Amino acid sequence: MWHRLFVKGKVISSTGAIYNCIGDLSGTTTNLVATLIASNGSTLTANISSTGIVSGTWVNANYNLSGSLTGIKKLTEISSSYIGSFDGTYSDGDTGTWTIIVAKDGSITGSTTSTKYGGTYSVSGTLNGNIANVTATSGSTLTATILSDGIVSGTWINTTYNLSGSLSGSKNATEISSSYIGIFSETYSGEDSGTWIITVSTDGTITGSATSTKYGGTYSASGTLSGTWINEDYSISGNLTGSKNIS
């Protein structure tokens, strides 16, 4: 069985636009090369040294644009105690509920729901140590301390409406085993054939994509993993195989 090493990421433009990218990893242990295609049509070629230094180039033939790229390996590793989904309530100037998901790279997504204003707002932010700094689309800023036992406490403030208060919560008890969290990829075959790649998150959600040899397209995927695949719209099915990406 052959193993294809996939890489994925995001390209964030100075305009604020965010483009997902996916590609392959090749090269040697002392100099890896990541070749990725972004959803805006750009091709990125990044050389990754054994010391974590990244350099390379990018080109977008659609807009006749090109340039260079640089970077470094993110040295901060997130403790498993702080990775996963958390939820709770907030109170005082407004009341409501909040939920966040802390990813392995320290990025945070989630939402808040306001009782007073009757809206649900998406949130995003980062984890610094065990401190979650999150901003909601409502304009509120949340600062939460996550303890190793999963207990969360902190404050929130919305300067636009001159509101503030406290928040509390905890880590959700149901967590997916680390054996099943990560990136998986390989091939599928049958009445169509191609490659697939999925990412299993700490909360059990699955996202990814499949590339079809027969139909020549790449399609986003979500849901759960099983040993077979089926497309009821086209009445075709087959088998899939794969493994967890080790690197």
Number of helices: 0
- β content, as a range? over 45%
Main sheet record: 8 strands, antiparallel, barrel
Amino- and carboxy-terminal Cα gap: 17 Å
Q: Could you state the order of secondary-structure elements as H and E?
A: EEEEEEEEEEEEEEEEEEEE
Percent helix, as a range, is: under 10%
Top-tier CATH class of the largest domain: Mainly Beta
What are the salient characteristics of this protein?
globular, 3 domains, six-stranded antiparallel beta sheet, mainly beta
Describe this entry's structure for a reader.
This protein has strands at residues 6-12, 18-27, 31-38, 43-49, 53-60, 65-72, 84-92, 96-102, 107-114, 120-128, 131-136, 141-146, 151-158, 163-171, 182-190, 194-200, 206-212, 218-222, 228-231, 236-244. It has three domains: 6-72, no CATH class; 80-171, Porin, CATH 2.40.160.90; 178-244, no CATH class. It is mostly beta strands and 247 residues long. Strands 7-8-9-10-11-12-13-14 form an eight-stranded antiparallel barrel. A six-stranded antiparallel sheet has the order 1-2-3-4-5-6, with no helix packed on it. A six-stranded antiparallel sheet has the order 18-17-16-15-20-19, with no helix packed on it. It has no helices and 20 strands. The mean pLDDT is 82. 0% of the residues lie in helices and 61% in strands. The protein starts with 5 loop residues before the first strand and ends with a strand. The radius of gyration is 21 Å and the shape is globular.
